[in-house]
Structure prediction request, 488 residues.
Amino acid sequence: MIFSYSILVLMLSLTATTINVVATTKEQELDRISALPGQPPVSFSQYSGYVTVNKKHGRALFYWFTEATASHQNKPLVLWLNGGQYSVFNTMIPRTIYLVLCVRPGCSSVAYGASEEIGPFRINTTGSSLYLNKYSWNREANVLFLESPAGVGFSYTNTSADLKDSGDNRTAKDALIFLLQWLSRFPQYKYKEFYISGESYAGRYVPQLAKEIVNYNKAHSHPIINLKGFIVGNAVIDNYYDSIGTVAYWWTHSIISDHTYRSILDHCNFTADKSTTQCDDAVYYAMNHEFGDIDQYSIYTPFCLTKINNSNRHPRLKNTLLRRRGYDPCIENYAEKYYNRPDVQKAMHANITKIPYKWTACSDTIFKNWNDSEDSMLPTYKELMAAGLKIWVFSGDTDSVVPVTATRFSLSHLNLTIKTPWYPWYTGGQVGGWTEVYHDLTFATIRGAGHEVPLFQPKRAFVLFQSFLAGKQLPRPNNTDPHTKFGW
Prediction:
């Protein structure tokens, strides 16, 4: 009798599990993308759709998931988050800090990460078709792109007040809820090695989400998110140190004069809540009279002339002259054409609520109404290093928005212990950048890359990603260590 009862319980349990798996499989199939308009044939599966993170407010986040091109069952899961955009003045926020460090949230991971940087496809100039990205990161991992917070890209909320009070805290909590819900929909990725990646304002998003996951895992005996580490590029880290490092970059790269450099340092208090007239005047003069018409995200490449005129300048637009070199600086324009097509939205299961505005790469509403933002990620970095996470920070060295000097100055205040001293790393027989390995963190530069590193230097970014996942130091030209030779 006992034996029969045990068998009955087991059968009921297996039946419930089977029903759950079938239901989950149906959810996945509803999100499956059979093919995007104008898409070349591919060997991997892709999915996109919505995950509700707050039923009461009707807040739902849009994702696009591309499985690895081969052996996806054996590859890790990587989440990519994009950050924000750059603005010189914004009266909605304290001015002193953001006159200098003006990166604010509100940009789409579909627009940038997926379509310009690490995703499998690029968009042609007319927005009519796609072509393959040779250095897509889904060659090495299953990559999940998230448009966050609600109000960015296709992500939406039915509560309009949500758009006026977004902030760091809610964004991190919503992202955790998204992951838990998404893993319930895709249970085959539970417990798989998981990494978070991103750039720019995601320098806050990424460690903040990592901290949420670490705390969640501590509170649960069998956590399903197997977080191993994160990698961030040209990352906003610390308002004060980043700001000083940014002004130093402007001066050392001859963008501003000696007089303006001294004036900014003398009059701008990067920890104050209010600006001074002298600080405002110094930065305004630099931006409007000394910078010139440069792309601040990539100071050595011309900007896109398509939408530029004397009265309307967009700082993210670049010049078409470099297409023949494999870099198309007007690529953002093509994304806005492509993702506003009804057939594309239908194929991606996007815009299901018919949001009352066009899909845009960045949301001005989110940008102007950010509610809370941590001044520094350095304490969070210390917590996450103590938790044993693998942490890599990289920096494109031609970006003046969140430049390499800002990142190095911020990281220097972690007082890290050097494991492998500074050395040049190589790919294709050329210096790909420089790196220094610490006991708890790896820092690397990518030579010749702007703010969006994989856009400007896709191969070097791919080698960086491969090394990060493998837990290996960036490649040298040979196996010898010059520091040993010189007794360092």
Remarks:
- Residues 21-238+329-485 form a domain with the Rossmann fold fold (CATH 3.40.50.1820).
- The mean pLDDT is 87.
